[in-house]
Design brief:
The chain has one domain: Cytochrome Bc1 Complex, Chain D, domain 2. The chain is 52% helix and 0% strand. It is an all-alpha fold. It is globular and about 45 Å long. Helix 2 packs across helix 5. The structure holds heme C. The site of heme C has 16 residues, from helix 2, helix 3, helix 4 and helix 5.
Length: 106
């Protein structure tokens, strides 16, 4: 009996683009230094689910930040903040095995 409800919830999550969960506040992200800064830097334009569904090496996160600036008109972060955000992304969303783990895993 739980299945239809789960399916409906999933369908809703997908259609709203929130497949990675309702990451609508910094507290919904894995803990770590730079969490708030990262959340607000990235959600200026899109939901954090877009970010959290990725798992990348530091080098690829670095490239992603550069792409956001060069292609998507992101305001470049100050060097200190950029390092903070990069450190946070690297430890909170590292490369991982296939499959989409819960964004609430620490
Ligand atoms: C100035 C706007 C802007 C900001 C700020 C921004 N992005 Fe993006 N980002 C975009 C746009 C536009 C897209 C592509 C369109 C979409 O899917 O919404 C995108 C897509 C992405 C994607 C998906 C790429 C893919 O191949 O699917 C990732 C990952 C991403 N952004 C990471 C980040 C991170 C991390 C930050 C914060 C450090 C960030 N973005 C901040 C505009 C922005």
């Amino acid at each position: 009996m739980q299945l239809p409800r789960l399916a409906a919830a999933l369908a809703l999550a997908v259609t709203t683009g929130a497949a990675a969960g309702a990451l609508d506040a910094p507290e919904a992200l894995p803990e770590g230094e730079g969490r708030e800064e990262t959340f607000y830097a990235c959600t200026a334009c899109h939901g954090f689910g877009l970010v959290a569904q990725q798992g990348m090496t530091r080098a690829l996160w670095d490239e992603t930040l550069t792409l956001m600036v060069e292609r998507n008109n992101m305001q470049p972060l100050e060097e200190k903040e950029r390092v903070l955000v990069l450190d946070y992304l690297t430890q909170a969303f590292p490369p991982r095995r296939r499959g989409r783990p819960s964004p609430f895993l620490k």
